[in-house]
Amino acid sequence: MTEAIRYERVGDIAVLAVDNPPVNALGRDVRVGLAAGMDRAEAEGARAVLIHGTGRTFPAGADIREFGKPPTEPFLPDLCNRIEASPLLVVSAIHGTALGGGLEVALSTHYRIATPSAKVGLPEVNLGILPGAGGTQRLPRVAGSEAALDLITSARHVGAEEALKLGILDRIAEGEAREIGLAHAQALLDEGAPRRPVGEMPAPEPVDFDARYDAVLKKGRGQLSPAVAVRAVQAACELPFEQGMARERELFTELMQSDQRQGLIHAFFAERAVGKLPELDGVTPREVASIGVIGGGTMGAGIATAALLAGLPVTLLEMTDKAAAAARGRIEHNLEGALKRGKISKARFERLAGQDLRIATSYAALSGSDLVIEAVFEDIEVKKQVFAQLDASCKPGAVLASNTSYLDLNEIAAATSRPQDVIGLHFFSPAHVMKLLEIVVADRTAPEVVATGFALGKRLGKVSVRAGVCDGFIGNRILAAYRACAEHMVLDGATPFQIDAAVRGFGFAMGPYEVSDLAGLDIGWASRKRKRAAGLDPKARDVTYADRLCEAGHFGRKTGKGYYIYGPGKSGAEPNPEVMELVAAERAEKGITPREFTDQEILRRYMAAMVNEAARVVGEGIARRPLDVDVTLLHGYGFPRYRGGPMKWADMDGLDGLLEDIRGYAREDDFFWSPAPLLEELVAEGRKFDDLNTPAGD
Ligand code: T1G
Fold first, then answer.
1. Domain 3-hydroxyacyl-CoA dehydrogenase C-terminal: where (predicted)?
2. Are the C-beta atoms of 12 and 47 separated by less than 8 Å?
3. Of 237, 354, 445, 696, which has the fewest CB atoms closer than 10 Å, so is most exposed?
4. DSSP label of 557
5. Which member of 124, 248, 487, 613 is catalytic?
6. DSSP string covering 284-345
7. What is the Å distance from ligand 1's center to 59 Cα?
8. More confident residue, 71 or 125
């Protein structure tokens, strides 16, 4: 027996308690212990076995940290078969989240009881694999093919009530898992309940698996695991159990060896490591019980909504009653969305929009706020005035935050007498939906203020990334680079529409021009004008055709025309023919003879520009580690999750080849394509970006 499994006899019942914090993952010690516990129970003449988890949950899956390493025995599918084959009555009692291999262990027992708050699921496709311990064969047998396909391809967690309805659970009972499990096992013994091996249940009814496969593959935008999982469930319908298990194993092994599994596991651990910063060790965040928001436009209203939904009372400041009323309207509209999506009850909606939200027009109303965040017009002078006012109005120790997306936070902090209390909290629109939060740390920001930013981010359900001060911080700075690369390719012969299609083919939901149309072309226009006013390097390629679009009032979706022309409602968009006329004019003006671009070259250049700028951002310390860039691009810019983020993708694609291509492009344009020093250094040393990340999952 291992200490990961505690063995206990209670009358005729042998109890195997899994004790492997934090989530009772089914690592080798747990598997060895469970097998030994089953052997002991049978040898000692017990009549039943109860398996449950200690601490926070029933096992939440295989130990993801073991992936990529040689598997060790007992292999989980064999352990599940062993449990199921026991001559004793085997019962599992579920609390917390029985996920992946955890649910597969439960499905290999003969009966399953759970607490009301328990959740179950088979989320393996989110890790680039599929349930590999019999889940694709047993779940269809207890819940039917339709439900099994839904749970396995969606990876969603299912509450106890729904799991009961689906036949995954037999009972739900209040109480500790061990207690309700013992009571259930004893009751089953008393009534002479038979063993009930799921593997011996009849094969589930087939569905149109080819149609499902195609639909799931299309929805996954190139992610393979959900579609391959369809084939595993199909095997449950078409093959005897043992052969179905063998088929599941084949498909599982194929996916385990895929780049997509590497990318998705990297994403899983990166978004958990990104908040772990040595500078925050032992630092206590300040208490934030209420927040102030300045500016009730789209961003300010979104931030206020996010705070309200997290249970934080909000005082929102606008300059006039009219603007205040408009801000309230935006926030109520956002909350109505949460109500419609079932995120909040009607009663909660009333309270949030009522007593928890105060709208004011005087800075004095912010004197009690623990943290104030401004989302006013992106102009440095306006921001400095706001911060001077905050300095005068807010209580000592209040955190003063800016939502600026690129302005110099050090200059903003200098407008106050308390620069140590100033921080950047860069939300992404819509702020109450997008998970990414860049926490921008100025030169004099106090460590506990940084910790306060991360604590607030966690409370708001955000994935927070630490960023240093520069134009665009992490995400927008890298976006500016690959967006500029796209513009250079348009001038040289590609079209925005070809680039969008190639980028969608890589797995992005939208291409860069579709994104610009959605965000509003006026944003990019303002940025180009700002950078020109600040003075462009004479070697920088300044692209102006898009200015003509904006001068004509075409700002994208919000005006019905931009790079694309938008029909009424949600009807599709068509390329705007005026765009290529403007491009042709600029090419002529600049003496450019357009050439052909293949989709492959478009993507290669696009990704090289992204990775090269990302390497600069890490090299300059704007991002602490490459994984910080990956998390930023995954959660704020639609980077396909199964590729792990730009740095993980570059490691898998090969840094040496990327650097060689960049050096080739630099022969055309040695300003834009000067290789990032960090990239050159890693290639010279034969290292990867991942070598600079803190060990994943530690
Ligand atoms: N293996 C190893 N570590 C894990 C883990 C796992 N399965 N799940 C969580 N952790 C770590 C996590 O890295 C973090 O560590 C800590 O536990 C708390 O997690 C054959 C092959 C269970 C819902 O996909 O969804 O079974 O940062 O911060 O927000 O078919 O963790 O503290 O050092 O996320 O409360 C299938 C993945 C595996 C579940 C809890 N199972 N985990 O969320 O805490 S594949 C999963 C989760 C499999 C079989 C296949 C969540 C959670 P640290 P956390 P949380």
1. 472-566, 603-687
2. yes
3. 354
4. G
5. 124
6. PPPP-S-EEEE--SHHHHHHHHHHHHTT--EEEE-SSHHHHHHHHHHHHHHHHHHHHTTSS-
7. 9
8. 125
Pocket test for ligand 1, best of 29, 30, 64, 95 (most atoms within 8 A of CB): 64
Whole-number Cα distances in Å, 286 to 273, 310, 316? 22, 17, 21
Q: What percent of the chain shows pLDDT beyond 70?
A: 99
Q: Whose CA is nearest to atom 12 of ligand 1?
A: 697
Confirm or reject: Cβ of 697 under 6 Å from ligand 1: yes
Give the residue among 359, 406, 358 at the shortest CA–CA distance from 383.
Answer: 406
568-592 pLDDT tens trace: 776 678 999 999 999 999 999 999 9
Give the CA dihedral 640, 646, 651, 654, nearest 10 degrees.
Answer: 90
CA of 697 to the centre of ligand 1 (A): 10
- Whether pTM > 0.80 for this model: the answer is yes
Cβ of residue 64 lying under 6 Å from some atom of ligand 1: yes
Domain architecture of the chain: domains with CATH? 5-257 (3.90.226.10), 288-467 (3.40.50.720), 475-692 (1.10.1040.50)
Containing 518, the helix (H) or strand (E) segment is helix 512-519
Residue in 57, 76, 180 with CA at minimum distance from that of residue 120:
57
> How many angstroms does the Cα of residue 255 sit away from the middle of ligand 1?
19
Q: Which residues contact 347 (CB under 8 A, 6 or more apart)?
A: none
Longest dimension (CA), the chain: 90
Distance of CA 350 to CAs 290, 296, 332, 335, 426, Å? 18, 19, 9, 9, 28
Q: What is the pLDDT of residue 527?
A: 86
Instruction: Determine whether 47 is exposed, middle or buried from the number of CB atoms within 10 Å of its CB (0-12, 13-18, 19+).
Output: middle
Per-residue pLDDT tens over the stretch 436-458: 999 999 999 999 999 999 999 99
pLDDT of residue 696: 41
Atom of ligand 1 nearest to the CA of 64: 1
Q: Which of 18, 20, 23 has most ligand 1 atoms within 8 Å of its beta carbon, as the pocket-test mutant? A: 23
Token look-up 């978004």 returns 271
- b/e burial code for range 436-452 (CB count within 10 A of at least 16 → b): bbbbbbbeebbbbbbbb
Query: Which atom of ligand 1 lies nearest, measured to the CA of 123?
Result: 24
What is the CA(63)–ligand 1 centre distance, in A? 8
DSSP assignments along 227-287, one per residue: HHHHHHHHHHHHS-HHHHHHHHHHHHHHHHTSHHHHHHHHHHHHHHHTT--GGGTTPPPPP
- CB of residue 62 inside a 6 A radius of ligand 1: yes
Q: What pLDDT sits at residue 191?
A: 97
Tell me: pLDDT of 406 over 90. no
Let me know if 124 is a catalytic residue: yes
Phi, psi for 351 (deg, rounded to 5):
-70, -45
Q: How far is CA 211 from CA 156, 215, 216, in A?
A: 21, 6, 9
Q: How far is the CA of 558 from the centre of ligand 1 (A)?
A: 41
E strand intervals along 474-589:
564-566, 573-575
How big, in percent rounded to 5, are the helix, strand and coil portions of the chain? Answer: 50, 10, 35
Strands (DSSP E) along 541-583, which ranges?
564-566, 573-575
- Tell me whether residue 318 is one of the annotated catalytic residues: no
Closest Cα to residue 665, out of 585, 597, 590? 597
